[in-house]
Amino acid sequence: MNAFxxxxxxxxxxxxxxxxxxxxxxAGNPAPPAYVSNSRSQPAAVPVPSVPADQAxxxxxxxxxxxxxxxxALSRQIGAESRNQNLRLVRRVGxxxxxxxxxYLSASGDQSQTTLFYVxxxxxxxxxxxxxILGQESAPGSSGDPWSGIDDDxxxxxxxxxxxxxxxxxxx
Length: 172
Description:
Elements: H1 2-26, E1 39-42, E2 57-60, H2 68-84, E3 88-89, E4 99-109, E5 113-123, E6 129-140, H3 152-170
Parallel strand pairs: 2-3, 2-4
Antiparallel strand pairs: 1-6, 4-5, 5-6
Helix pairs in contact: 2-3
């Protein structure tokens, strides 16, 4: 059993930084994750369709990279923030929506601090990326699995910033 846990820890220690680097590479930003600001966006790659903001609907696809409990908590907080911003979320899997949002999450850290990295790609019905939201949130440190250091406060900040940026993009 000890050999299994030792091997698992070694694999996790190698996999977490590799995932963070992969997410940083997806961002199209040459800076390592430590230099990514708390939240920022990139210009639209494809023109935004002329859908009135009050008619647009959004469907968040299942998040990639996060354990189920973290993904569920972030989904709930994004839902609450979306209601506060008067955004219309579609909750059923596969239901029609004006935009789909693909979320990618990673956590990295040590005993003193943990960082949540997030990327949300807003895509149209054809899968074309229209907008990207990038960010990171700090949380208390943890020993072992960095996801155990990601608290509700960090998830709430990520949800607030992401939904505010989504609303600003939609209403521009």
